[in-house]
Amino acid sequence: MNKKLEDRQGRVPYEYIKNIYKDKNPRQMAKSTNTEFNTCSNEIHFEFMNKDFYVKWPLGEVYFSDGSIVRSFAFKTLILRYLVNSKGVPPSGKDLTYKEIPGGHVYYSNFYNRTIKKLSKLFESNSEGVIDTLKKMDAKKVNTGDIGFKFKFLEQIYITLIFWRGDDELSPSSNILFDANIPYYFDAEDLAVIGEIILYVLKNKGKLPNWKGLYKDI
Q: Whole-model pTM?
């Protein structure tokens, strides 16, 4: 992807949600996401896949726990959408497939090609590495599929990854399930970005994505 185009495609949605974020009440956003707002530093502290971050209010810049700035527009946009759109609904314990998410059937083909298909290949090629990264994220095993793990993506947001190894008749396959409260935080398009971010983190041993655009170019 052209570097300038990638930068613009990432910056435009980020600037848009940042303008909405600055007008929101930070205490209310923290309360509805079960995160913490520091009134002295004007920061909302949150945990993403078992790592600590914070976002400045009203600026909308996102930082690692050590104070270094996050440069990925995809990640920053997702976090601000999470804070702005949260309805404060706790996890239900019930899982939904992507197709069951409002609008999911429209984007499913894109979601399948960008996430589920690649997740199958990742599990097949490096299941030990993926499992090791998931365990470091404090993911919990579930009794579904040949390999199944549930983890906290963000506060209130739980995601389950499932992999079937396949046999002589069936190819390896996978799925991504979302707690049923997910529509109160993210829409179907957001979840496509989430899927790509999860894949990157698992493939790169916990590191955040480094692409600037909202989606990873494939």
A: 0.91
C-alpha–C-alpha distance, residues 145 and 161, integer Å:
9
| Domain final position from 43, 58, 85 | 85
Kindly tell me the sign of the dihedral angle through the C-alpha atoms of 183, 186, 187, 192: negative
Is residue 11 domain-shared with residue 72, that is, in the same domain?
Answer: yes
Residue 208 lies in a domain: no
Nearest 5°: the CA angle 136, 137, 140 is 100
pLDDT in tens, 26-73: 999 999 999 999 999 999 999 999 999 999 999 999 999 999 999 999
With a CB cutoff of 8 Å and minimum separation 6, the contacts of 109 are none
Question: How many residues make up the chain in this entry?
Answer: 218
Average pLDDT rounded to a whole number, residues 147-164:
97
The structure tokens listed for 94 are: 């019930």
Has residue 135 got a pLDDT over 70?
Answer: yes
**∠ CA 106-109-112, rounded to 5°:** 125
In our burial notation (b when 16+ CB lie closer than 10 A, e otherwise), range 3-15 reads eeebeebbbebbe
